[in-house]
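Fold this sequence, please.
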Amino acid sequence: MLRLYCYLTVLILGFSSILVSSSPVAKEHKVLRQKADAAEVIAHKTEQEQLEKARQAAKVTQAREQALLKSQGSGWEEAQRQKAQQDFNQRQSREEKYLQEAKKAANQERKLPKP
């Protein structure tokens, strides 16, 4: 009976030491899990903030580009119109000059050499 009592005591002490020793490990695991969850939430929040900042920066950049193109575009378009008008006027004056020369040549008497 004494042996049985000793075995039971050893078993009970063994189980209690296992429970006591596993208890801090379980608590530590819970604490680490909570820290990991908190870090994951912070990382997700930071990522969302960075994405939002990037979106805002892209919008600002696009608006700035549009404003720049608009300010440059009107001057460029006007310069192109003026150049096209000048080219047109030059062609027209050349055509008129050639037409006048042709009329003069038609009005002149030509003398053909006699064979």
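Helices lie at 2-107. The mean pLDDT is 81.
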